[in-house]
């Protein structure tokens, strides 16, 4: 029994690592170690839930619900996922990573319960969604970028027109007005967009506009 339980923990760590590698390669907030720990931890919780109270069951009319700990993992992992969601003004990032952690916890619970085939299949499906659907989405709608522009107010309309000419889909935008000691006004723009162009192409087009001082592309 102990050998099989140890194998469950090892398998959970391996499956969590597969998802974590994909997230790490994409430079996401939760990477390899986080996903391994989440999957191993949920597996151990499930093992405790199923086998950890065998020595007291049947004594003094004690009855336990083996699903209670698993239910707490499902809700508790939400706190960890919430920590990966970042709100930068009106831009929300990290939702996919949070969902990935939630699924990783589910895989750990499944492996901990002994349903190995379902756990492996769930891992494969998760990787297909994270990587395969991402590539399909990029081909159909383009890559998602965050633009950070520093420009003069007069050049803002020209910058937006340039993006429209490139057939770039602007998803969200926000503008912050900055004034220095000389009362010169500059705008800081944050733009979430999707484009089929490379970042270098977008950078060169926008930097050619008079009044655009600085561009960061993430």
TrEMBL record:
Principal subcellular localisation of the protein: membrane
Cellular compartment(s): Cell inner membrane; Cell membrane
A Pfam family annotated for this UniProt entry: MgtC
GO CC annotation, single: plasma membrane
Segments passing through the bilayer: 6-22, 34-53, 69-87, 99-125
Family assignment from sequence similarity: Belongs to the MgtC/SapB family.
Name this protein carries in UniProt: Protein MgtC
């Amino acid at each position: 029994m102990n050998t099989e339980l140890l194998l469950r923990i090892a398998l959970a760590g391996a499956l969590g690592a597969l998802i974590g590698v994909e997230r790490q390669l994409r430079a996401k907030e939760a990477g390899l170690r986080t996903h391994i720990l989440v999957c191993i931890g949920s597996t151990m919780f499930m093992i405790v839930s199923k086998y950890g109270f065998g020595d007291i069951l049947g004594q003094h009319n004690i009855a336990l619900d083996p699903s209670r700990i698993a239910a707490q993992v499902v809700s508790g992992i939400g706190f960890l996922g919430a920590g990966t969601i970042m709100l930068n003004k009106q831009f929300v990032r990290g939702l996919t990573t949070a969902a990935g952690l939630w699924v990783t916890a589910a895989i750990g619970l499944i492996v901990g319960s002994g349903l190995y085939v379902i756990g492996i299949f769930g891992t494969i499906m998760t990787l297909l969604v994270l990587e395969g659907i991402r590539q399909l989405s990029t081909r159909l709608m383009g890559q998602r970028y965050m633009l950070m522009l520093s420009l003069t107010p007069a050049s803002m309309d020209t910058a937006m027109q340039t993006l429209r000419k490139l057939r770039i889909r602007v998803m969200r935008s926000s503008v912050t007005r900055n004034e220095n000691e000389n009362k010169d006004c500059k705008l800081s723009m944050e733009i979430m967009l999707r484009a089929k162009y490379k970042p270098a192409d977008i950078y060169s087009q926008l930097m050619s506009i008079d009044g655009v001082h600085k561009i960061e592309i993430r």
